[in-house]
Amino acid sequence: MQGDSRAVSARVIRDGDAWAADRSSPLALPLLILLALMSAGLVVYAAGNWALGAGFGAALLAGAALLGWYRRLYPQEVAVGEAVPDWTVARAAADASNMAIAVTDRAGRLVCASDLFGEWFPGFPTPPHVTGDSSLSDSLGNAARAAWRDGEARVEGIVQGALRLDAFLCRTGRSEDYLLWRFSPVRQPSALDDVHRLLTGEAGRQLGEAGIMAVMIGGEGRIRAANGAFLLRAAGRIDANITGRDFAAHMRVDDKARLFLAREESGGIPLRLLQVPLKRAAQPAGAQSGAQDGPMLLLLIDEPAGNAGGTSALSYIETLLSLLPFGLAMADRDGRVLFMNKAFSRAAGVKPEEKPSYPGDLVVREDQAAVADAVRRFAVGPQMSGDVAVRMRNQPDEPIALSLAGVRGLGEAAVLLSLKDNSEESKLKRQVAQATKMQAIGQLAGGVAHDFNNILTAIIGHCDLMLMRHTPGDSDYDDIQQIKSNSNRAAGLTRQLLAFSRQQTLRPQILQLPDIVADVSNLLKRLLGESVKLEVSHGRNLGAVRADPGQLEQVIVNLAVNARDAMPDGGTLNIQTYGVPAAKVREMRSDILPPADYTAVRVSDTGLGIPPDILSKIFEPFFTTKELGKGTGLGLSTVYGIVKQSGGFIFAESELGRGASFVIYLPVYQGADVDQAAQPKAPVRRSETWGTGTVLLVEDEDMVRAVAERALSRQGYKVLTANDGEQGLEVLAGDEKIDLLISDVVMPNMDGPSMVARARASHPDLPVLFMSGYAEEQLRKSIDIANVAFLPKPFSVSQLAEAARDALAMRPAAE
Q1: 764-799 core/surface letters (b: 16 or more CB in 10 A; e: else)
Q2: Which is higher by pLDDT, 633 or 718?
Q3: Which of 200, 261, 598, 651 is the most buried (most CB within 10 A)?
Q4: How many Cβ atoms sit within 10 Å of the Cβ of residue 442?
Q5: Where are the beta strands (DSSP E) in 289-421?
Q6: Percent of the chain as helix, strand, coil, to the nearest 5
Q7: pTM for the model
Q8: What does the pLDDT average to over 307-318?
């Protein structure tokens, strides 16, 4: 402990003699003589005797001199304010911890510091200026001011060379006039925790069942963790607590240098010991580790009589390593691979029938030299462990850590290699990234489609109005028809975007998949052509599903067209429907498909197949492998959106040269009306759309409101308009009787549902027709209003007239 003597040498003489408090004062002697003369004068004045006065003054001077001489020989000093701190006790406490400690006073002086503080910060600098980093000094200075004010403060993430420290500051002392600085190293993740969990968990139990004792000891030779097999044989009970005990105390060695358990005495079986060095977290300079050697994992294996050779031991070790859940392999001194367990093969992407000759065969060419050099160093050098960052051939874009440890006494085996299997973790990361990207694109596509639907509604409506003034043969008739035709094509494109973003309007019904396949088969035969053969097969006792039949037909058509394009020279397209019970789903062990009863449809072809790098992108919008101008890239993304919006799942399987298969799983419908097979009820449409009455049209888009107003006026309705919900309520509160309310859903200020909810309070029987570019299903989930009709955008003049007529027909019979 380094101390500043000046900080503890400020002393004062005990109260009682003010004149001796400061012997160095130049006025002390003159003041003393003046005091003696004044005292002698007073005596002369009072007694009238000059001899008596002179004697009194001389006696006073002599007494003061004697008192000063006595104080000089026997000084009586005490510290100002409090007793002097015992820095020896503080030194012992500081050195017993793994922290660098310093103490400063209110003047900012370093009072004391531990030895470890001087090692981490050479020269014993005074906090907060412990390094040359000005920003760090500012942070520590602010923390010091906060500690003086609030009593404590903290600064994290201090980088000092290879160290990463956290600083804790607190005000201390009897008068709280000291500031205590504690710098502690940040604990780094270590393999010790993983091994501890391994030994005390399920893996440790399985090792014990295999007859393998496993124990982890620290560098000081004390037990940190052990599996049940070791506890049972070394301590006699599987629940024994031997943590912290000396490992050597449980072992004994006979005169032939064979290793036994001490508890088993002469009847024990010799044991073979495998030592696996464990890499510890980086120790800070000067930290007390307790021993030179680091912690290690010890594996104790019964050695059969007469088989003490290295070959026999190696076979047992291989059996052991094959049971462990993490990837392990062994290599000899020349770097050749001797063994690798299944977890290592999976992590390295090695097929079961393959076996690499060298560890460098598993990595990319640029990393082979580094791996070969590391293997040689660990094979011939002292027993140690370390990591090498490598890129595997099967995953060249994701660097991973290859751990190596030198082992001895295992015959040919000289290096133990460990590789973590990141395949599932990487797969999950890719799935999350893909789902996030698809969701973002879906939200964008839905918003674009909604806004575009408003524009298409105006274009199609004005085309219909112009066609009413022209007859076939007019010069402008064909041009208007062409505009309307292209607008309808654009409307189909927006429907695909809405299907991909799962915002399309669906009309779900209870149906059987074989019926849908049968309805679309004739169309498929014309689409596929003569070179592609269509085969259809159906399973028995299939459960009913709830979906939109028209959208399911579009799904099958899109998949069939893609399959036809993948078979340019002809082939076979197979469509199969079958049931998948919940028990079979559990056997599949899928992370995506939840256990339930499903009805599946498989669409497979014998075409060229899909490359693995493309297979993960096929459901992305606008992704296509077709030539420019021959595909929009929305076919499979539309299929994906329809299936997901219907509550189902779709999976793609393919192998180059052997075709591709798309499997759709739709959950079996379990509703009370499941026996009522869906017979699509065709709406009764009357050819006459002429009507009477007053219609209130509420629409914030001027172009849509204008075309809808003209279309309804041509059908005989009196139309009142409003720009938003608030204006609509004002019109509704007027004297005019409103027979029908037509409103957009999403509007500024007050949206359509809010307006209708307030309107129904005063007009409970008012028919309402909502129109929107969003999906009806999504809107009905958010609109808690009964007896409302819905018209999706874009719509034509005739569709608007029919929807208005049907909405008016919902009025009660009393009216």
Answers
A1: eebbbbbbbbbbbbbbeeebeeeebbbbbbbbbbeb
A2: 718
A3: 598
A4: 21
A5: 296-302, 327-331, 337-340, 385-392, 395-410, 413-419
A6: 40, 25, 35
A7: 0.38
A8: 57
